[in-house]
């Protein structure tokens, strides 16, 4: 009788553990589906993806990851490879670069919906900028390989994205070339004199 009771207890414990594991798995799958839906809705609101079909956005959303950063934490560091394309979901970040003389130059602050990471999207490229969270920040990260597949498979998007990258490269290069002397000769309208 004792042996039967022990086996029954093991069976109940085993069944309970299995049910808990199944419930946990179902909960994780449901959370993931909500997360994919949340990311897809967010990406649809980002101007860079207005021209994409829902199927492409859903595919990107399925590959995207949420990442959280505390105030003062580095998200991207100049001179290092990025992990992909970052979209600010919540919070605020500060973008900076080093000038050719080694001075740190703040470029911009970014908020929800802004994007960075495009300047090092291709294999072997390193970031020309540093990105630091100014406050608790959550980003949606789309890994490089999925952005590159999108660029290659949709020519219109590839062209628009390439133009965006080129515009950003020029902007960063401009700030990297500024030296202290030209900073002092900046005019009141924000243009720099040589």
Describe this structure in words.
A four-stranded antiparallel β-sheet has the order 1-8-3-6. Strands 2-7-4-5 form a four-stranded antiparallel β-sheet. 16% of the residues are buried. It has helices at 2-44, 54-63, 144-153, 155-177, 180-184; strands spanning 65-69, 74-76, 84-90, 92-98, 104-111, 115-116, 130-133, 137-143. Strand 4 (92-98) and strand 5 form a beta hairpin. By secondary structure, the chain is an alpha+beta fold. The longest helix has 43 residues, at 2-44. 47% of the residues lie in helices and 22% in strands. The protein has one domain (41-178): Jelly Rolls, CATH 2.60.120.
Task: List descriptors.
194 residues, alpha+beta, Jelly Rolls, disordered N terminus
CATH architecture: Sandwich
What's the gyration radius in Å? 24 Å
Strand content: 15-25%
Number of helical elements: 5
Tell me the CATH topology.
Jelly Rolls
The name of the CATH superfamily reads Jelly Rolls
Distance between the termini: 96 Å
Give the topology string: H per helix, E per strand: HHEEEEEEEEHHH
Class by alpha and beta content: alpha+beta
